[in-house]
């Protein structure tokens, strides 16, 4: 049985717990103290609640971050310095070039892997392959409902309650997008990390009162040719900011621990 550590106890973490592949169990959950009683109730006390990964004295088979960019800043280096493999959802934390370098060198030094979950988008394998031949441009457009942008800085850029048609409220680099919208624009950072980088990836963020889905459009142009991907993702019932596919990419990372044979 593979035993993983979850970081976070919100929408994505609950989806992972509900869909955990056979042969994988959750040994530890890093969460704020307010969640510890609920964690202690899972599977008759089989899961240990922690305030920090350093409280764990065993080696998890995988540490899965489903929390926030702040959580990546707080815990990722500790995890990698112990030589534990880490997969992150809050990829926008890596818009901080210094943190990215720190985590890369910790992973190299301790023979751990730092996996960027594909999250809410598809095509990251093709984008990384295209990069090998040279990419000219990568653009990303995110289109979400007002509920998705609620609680984000979008509130100050557009009137979310009264918007009547799809409206662009942000244009800039992936680095700016990921930093400004930490709970909504991790996808911009993921695309940048797999493609032409944080400063060269152009991003447009839109609010659309006529949708309930999170739509991600990627256009990549390079020596390989050109691709356009449009993904219309359903959101989690528990969190309209988060696409179900993002949670499913975390589930798939767990499945890789037990499936051998074919790999994408
Ligand atoms: N790469 C991608 O495509 C995507 C990435 N994401 C990222 O995944 C994250 C999780 O999504 P989701 O589960 O839907 O979000 P939720 O807001 O539903 O849950 C986040 C959980 O993480 C906890 N948390 C946040 N920061 C910390 C911390 N520093 N220490 C301990 N616990 C922490 C929260 O604690 P509390 O309840 O105490 O506040 C909460 O339990 C998002 O914030 C976003 O960064 C999301 C969607 C797509
Ligand atoms: O889940 C999504 O559609 C995207 C998201 O929140 C993010 O990029 O942070």
TrEMBL record:
Binding site for NAD(+): 120, 186
Gene3D superfamilies in alphabetical order: Dihydrodipicolinate Reductase, domain 2, NAD(P)-binding Rossmann-like Domain
Residue ranges constituting the Aspartate/homoserine dehydrogenase NAD-binding domain according to the UniProt record: 54-114
Pathway: Cofactor biosynthesis; NAD(+) biosynthesis; iminoaspartate from L-aspartate (dehydrogenase route): step 1/1
InterPro entries documented for this protein: Asp/hSer_DH_NAD-bd, Asp_DH, Asp_DH_prok, L-Asp_DH, NAD(P)-bd_dom_sf
EC numbers: 1.4.1.21
Keyword line: NAD, NADP, Oxidoreductase, Pyridine nucleotide biosynthesis
Pfam families: Asp_DH_C (PF01958), NAD_binding_3 (PF03447)
Annotated ranges, domain Aspartate dehydrogenase: 164-251
Active-site residues (renumbered): 216
Reaction(s) catalysed (UniProt annotation): L-aspartate + NAD(+) + H2O = oxaloacetate + NH4(+) + NADH + H(+); L-aspartate + NADP(+) + H2O = oxaloacetate + NH4(+) + NADPH + H(+)
Domain of life: Bacteria
UniProt GO molecular function: aspartate dehydrogenase [NAD(P)+] activity; NAD binding; NADP binding; oxidoreductase activity, acting on the CH-NH2 group of donors, NAD or NADP as acceptor
Gene Ontology annotations of biological process type: NAD+ biosynthetic process
Other remarks on this protein: The iminoaspartate product is unstable in aqueous solution and can decompose to oxaloacetate and ammonia.
Family recorded in the similarity comment: Belongs to the L-aspartate dehydrogenase family.
Function of the protein: Specifically catalyzes the NAD or NADP-dependent dehydrogenation of L-aspartate to iminoaspartate.
Name of the protein in question: L-aspartate dehydrogenase
Gene name, Swiss-Prot/TrEMBL: nadX
